[in-house]
Queue: 3 jobs
Job 1
Amino acid sequence: MNLNKFLWVSDEVKDALASNRPVVALESTIISHGMPYPQNVETALLVEKTVREYGAVPATIAIIGGTISVGISAEQIEYLGKKGLAVTKASRRDLPVLLARGEDGATTVATTMIGASLAGVQVFATGGIGGVHRGAEITMDISADLEELSQTDVTVVCAGAKSILDLGLTLEYLETKGVTVIGYGTKELPAFYCRKSGYQVDYRLDTAAEIAAAIHVKETCGLKGGLLVTNPIPEEYAMNEEEMAEQIDKAVAMANELGIKGKEITPFLLDKIKTLTEGRSLAANIKLVLNNAKLGAAIACELCKLK
């Protein structure tokens, strides 16, 4: 079957890739499930603008009408933002049915990696990855993001794993799957809203050029899977670790009481934490995504120099 039926890449992204210019993939779950309209659309467009300002072409990825679309337009971002939670949160398992039915989907980290890889985009900037959920030894609730990192050749730039997760087990899972975890300017895993977690990453690299060199070597040696680059939220926007631990515990307790699990758990917890922190966690979320977009663009630029 012809893949072109299910994959669309914008002319701008195609031209950039063909001429060895830097491209940075961006996800769409943050648009439909991350925050309310119109803030979701404003943030998505600001992230794209930031990528451009730092020298790369943004490629926001979503499923539009049954097609994996790489480099969607501002109008399509507006469409996803207005449709909001009515858009399916699409991970790898959802792709066959959504594409077959001709439906829309907001891509998670895993699905954005798939779309980026199909289009030939090597760098993807997001907020935080999914991981091993608290209590996973009983529920087996482990994000598909981790499995995707082990098999799809896309470097993911993030602010660490979301702090609602079991960060220790998340790192153990990544180690088992052979995923290299890099700290940008740090040896400690950042915890999304917070700069510190108490857990160590595999390597500290201090420049985008060093990270690009590692990506290039990995590609040259034919090593499958992605690299995970963890980038701490800027200090002026970081939240207090003790306060966040307290609010996360409260949100997790609420979720347990209501029996919320599976793909609904992350958006529920993030929304409750936003309420408990009086909106400060959402403001921090936006700042860290912009920070990751800057680093993603810098890495993509350096990577093009090695081609």
Job 2
Amino acid sequence: MYTFSSKLKTFSLILMVVGLLGVGYGFYSAPKDIQEVEAILASDAHGSHHEGSNSSAEAHAAAGENKVNAETEHKEHLEHVLNQLQNKPWAAFYVACIFFMLISLGVLVFYAIQQVAQAGWSPVLFRVMQGITAYLPVGSIIFFIVLILCGLQYNHLFVWLNPEVVAADKLIQAKSGYLNFPFWIIRAAIFLIGWNLYRYFSRKNCLAQDASNDDSFYKKNFNISAGFLVFFIVTESIMSWDWIMSIDPHWASTLFGWYVFASFFVSAITTICLITLYLKSRGYLEHVNTSHIHDLAKFMFGFSVFWTYLWFSQFMLIWYANIPEEITYFVTRIQVYNLPFFGAVAMNFLFPILILINTDFKRITWILLMASTVILFGHYIDFFNMIMPGTVGDQWFIGTSEIGSLLFFLGLFIYVVFTALTKVPLLAKRNPFIEESKHFHY
């Protein structure tokens, strides 16, 4: 049985406390009115950032524009910036919340694929996967609460939830049959409940199989895993539209569901690798060998390439077509989010390609630790790029909200996952393929 070390537990608790303090300060320091926004814009940190807007207003005034209209424009600009700055702590919290929840979901999907494929190499890792998926119920509850708060207008992350915006926007009105709060939150509840039900019953059957005299529970898991994968492939696409793409309701991409999947799926496999390496270093998982680690690294490499293929396909087709309604999505990210936008490509493609293409490197622990850290951070930045531009616009910067949210959810993830690993033995003893998995070598 695994024992949650006091040092790691203390570390996770410290991360949560420090993270909560950062999140709290982020909300506290957000401007409350346009007077505070004016003071912020006048400061050195933001003055140059908004110089163009002020110069534009002066140019209009100099050209003889009506003073009242100029003042109205200025006020509208300040209100827009106020909304963006008030969104910032919410958006930072949302990015971290959805990222860690989807990592646990990705591990659950990877586990289901192993069940349906009747894979012989992976059963020694099943309990590690189940431990990681223990975060899914916790993450789902927090995420669902955030969605409800969005619907109750505690923030402006989803502009189509604001009746005033919808009333003035014909395009959003045309989508209101789908993008409306009751239907949206019902879909979210169905998705989250469905995923968590599979997680509950698959774990229950796996544990029951250990005490069984036949393979009946394994066969049950095979059947429900096949059903879950069908359910997932439908709900994942809709989830990506609902929870991420609808942040930019004027923009759409038919590749977006696959793109989001690739991002959190490779992050999930990378997380399995990291936790497996940690447990091995602590003397656990005696039957896990370098061949198992090598296979995980191959999946990390392969899905990093897959993510890049989707990134390039989406970007190249939209950029080449140069349709104004579509290209604005990438123009904003290239002009305003240049460093994180292209930095994510370097961390999620160039780095894994250069490091993990070497077969020997896939078995060396310190190289895998380095590669895993870069990949996970790179895909966190990827989610940052997907969510932040539509919620905070050009008001982004890495501050206490972003750091605090990341630390809090990282600490919570570590605490929940490693607590779950202490509950059951780390080896699924009665799995039909467990002996093959124990002696897996190539």
Job 3
Amino acid sequence: MLNILTLAAVSTEAVPEMTKSFIAAMTITGLAVVFLGLLILVVYLTLSGKLFVRLGIGQPKPKKAPAAPAPKPVAAPKPAVPAAVAGEDEDEIAAVIAAVVAAMSTADGTAYAVRSIKPVRRVGSGRSAWAQAGMADLTAPFSIQ
């Protein structure tokens, strides 16, 4: 059977004395190893990114511009507010939406019309349309197509 005291005596002889210079050397060595590892990772990811760009992997495909149809003359838009829009300011909301659409049509030179105003149903994640658009903008660089 092994003697525990003998093992303890052997293990203490293998440990060097913890002086300030030893602690400083170990700290510097540890930091150097970590930063060297990070540098290797940065170089690897940069080179693999350049390789993928050269091979054409992961680049978004250019979208074809849709042909613009000829603008149709439209009378003044009449917003239709369905009963589904809740609140007592339905007419004001419809007027603001119609004003924005009219401003867009004069800026673009294209005639737009408001045909109906419906509340947006939250589908899937439960986020609002603004939150979904924000997530799409923020995660666009990471999408793989």
